[in-house]
């Protein structure tokens, strides 16, 4: 007589969620027979990702199931024949990205993240004039005025809970007394309502007008007179009121999300934020804060920087790291047909599809990945923080958080797979 399967539930506490870059590390997850359920501190994004049933799929070569060893061998064959491969997507943890860099160095590859366009908007500002930024902890403990520009933080569901409306704060700051301001195109302001019911200030304008609004605030703060009645549909008196609030703040923060500033030359708008912060620090404390780095983007950028000396968009084709922010973008090198093989990595989400290109393509993706083409090789991979332990950097880059394994998985990690490829080349 067959024994009934063991369905005793195990509970893991203090789980770090890898599915957005604020890396909430207080989840409580139940595992009952391989089925996960978040018992505490869930958000919609985490619930969907953790509680999804794990698909059962094998490695494939041109759509046909094959043993894993055959798929790895085919990857090696593709990379040996390639003169200029591209490693993109890069949705992996620190360990996986270390192996990406090792393999890129060995094969002369270009590296770029799936969110590279957003990352570069910040990098260009930092490289050009520098910035003053803060951390989630500093916002939680010190900030009394928080201005969201071009974002409502909805893509980071627990940001307000974890950082702004936190129950406890140092230095006798009462979180409910914080002033919240939104500048942008019809933001969702529900999260910005304080625990005592005070509504945030909202300055509605189009996204491509945000730079103009910020420049006007900067001018007003310097004492300049603006010979107009409105800027971007906002009355000068409204902007003057906000400028007065900014000057009076004890610790102000400007928050933006580079991915949501999808406008031409967005880096110039971000530079406006950063230059305004610098000016405000002449007479009070002010800082910037970027909400970015989902799908392991912050970790990928950091690993690339410490391994090569440059942020992402580096080529190893010349035998040394060569950085070019525009030239080595994934979109650019594929469009110009400057690469002859593509390795796409996405171990957190199947929502961003691998680009379809007329070159040998390898996809290391989550088991539920739905592709609109048959790549040369597809290998399902484990998800860091769910199927195996790992490490990720938070959006502010000041801390890396450990990822726990909360279930058994038949799939290997990106780190393990690429290590095997490196060993066979």
> What form results from the Cα inertia axes?
globular
* SSE class: alpha/beta
CATH topology of the largest domain: Rossmann fold
How many domain modules? 3
Terminal-residue CA separation = 49 Å
**Sheet having the most strands:** 9 strands, mixed
In CATH, the architecture of the largest domain is: 3-Layer(aba) Sandwich
What is the count of helical runs? 12
Number of strands: 21
**Beta-strand content:** 15-25%
Overall pLDDT metric: 95
The level 1 CATH classification of the largest domain is Alpha Beta
Order the strands across the largest sheet as they lie in space. 5-4-19-18-17-6-7-15-16
Computed over alpha carbons, the radius of gyration is 23 Å
Low-confidence stretches: none
Helix content: 25-40%
Any overview of this molecule?
With 425 residues, the chain is α/β, with parallel strands linked by helices. It folds into three domains: 10-49, no CATH class; 57-115 and 295-424, Rossmann fold, CATH 3.40.50; 120-290, Dimethylsulfoxide Reductase, domain 2 (3-Layer(aba) Sandwich), CATH 3.40.228. It has twelve helices and 21 strands. The protein has helices spanning 44-51, 68-81, 94-107, 116-128, 136-142, 159-164, 210-221, 236-248, 266-280, 297-308, 330-335, 414-424, and strands spanning 10-15, 27-32, 35-40, 60-61, 64-65, 85-91, 110-111, 145-149, 179-184, 201-204, 230-231, 234-235, 251-256, 285-290, 314-315, 322-323, 341-346, 361-365, 377-380, 390-393, 400-403. The strands form five sheets. The protein has a nine-stranded mixed sheet. Strands 10-9-8-13-14 form a five-stranded parallel sheet, with helices on both faces. α2 crosses α12 (414-424), α4 (116-128) packs across α9 and α7 (210-221) runs parallel beside α9. The chain is globular. The mean pLDDT is 95.
């Amino acid at each position: 007589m067959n024994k009934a399967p063991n369905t005793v539930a195990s509970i893991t506490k203090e789980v770090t969620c890898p599915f957005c870059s604020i890396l909430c590390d207080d989840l409580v997850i139940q595992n009952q027979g391989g089925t996960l359920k978040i018992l505490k501190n869930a958000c919609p994004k985490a619930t969907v990702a953790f509680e999804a049933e794990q698909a059962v799929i094998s490695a494939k070569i041109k759509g046909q199931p094959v043993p894993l060893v055959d798929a790895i061998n085919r990857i090696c064959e593709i990379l040996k024949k390639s003169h200029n491969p591209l490693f993109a997507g890069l949705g992996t943890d620190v360990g996986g990205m270390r192996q990406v860099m090792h393999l890129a160095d060995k094969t002369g590859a270009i590296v770029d993240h799936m969110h590279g366009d957003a990352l570069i908007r910040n990098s260009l500002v930092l490289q050009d004039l520098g910035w003053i930024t803060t951390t989630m902890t500093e916002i939680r403990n010190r900030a009394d005025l928080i201005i969201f520009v071009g974002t409502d933080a909805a893509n980071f569901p627990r940001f307000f809970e974890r950082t702004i409306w936190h129950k406890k704060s140092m230095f006798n700051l009462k979180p409910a007394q914080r002033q919240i301001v939104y500048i942008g195109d019809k933001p969702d302001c529900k999260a910005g309502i304080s625990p005592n019911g005070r509504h945030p200030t909202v300055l509605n304008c189009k996204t491509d007008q945000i730079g103009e609004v910020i420049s006007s605030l900067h001018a007003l703060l310097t004492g300049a007179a603006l010979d107009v009645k409105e800027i971007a549909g906002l009355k000068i008196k409204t902007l003057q009121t906000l400028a007065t609030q900014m000057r009076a703040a004890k610790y102000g923060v400007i928050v933006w999300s580079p991915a949501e500033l999808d406008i031409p030359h967005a880096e110039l708008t971000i530079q406006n934020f950063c230059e305004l912060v610098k000016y405000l620090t002449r007479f009070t404390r002010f800082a910037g804060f970027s909400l970015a780095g989902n799908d392991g983007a912050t970790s990928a950028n950091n690993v690339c920087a410490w391994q090569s000396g440059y942020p992402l968009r580096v080529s190893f084709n010349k035998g040394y790291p060569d950085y070019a922010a525009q030239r080595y973008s994934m979109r650019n090198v594929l469009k110009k047909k400057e690469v002859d093989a593509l390795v796409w990595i996405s171990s957190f989400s199947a929502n961003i599809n691998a680009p379809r290109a007329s070159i040998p393509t390898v996809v290391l993706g989550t088991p539920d990945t739905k592709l609109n083409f048959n790549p040369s090789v597809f290998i399902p991979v484990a998800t860091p923080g769910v199927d195996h332990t790992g490490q990720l950097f938070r959006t502010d880059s000041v801390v890396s958080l450990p990822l726990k394994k909360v279930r058994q998985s038949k799939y290997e990690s990106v780190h393990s797979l690429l290590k095997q490829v490196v060993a066979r080349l």
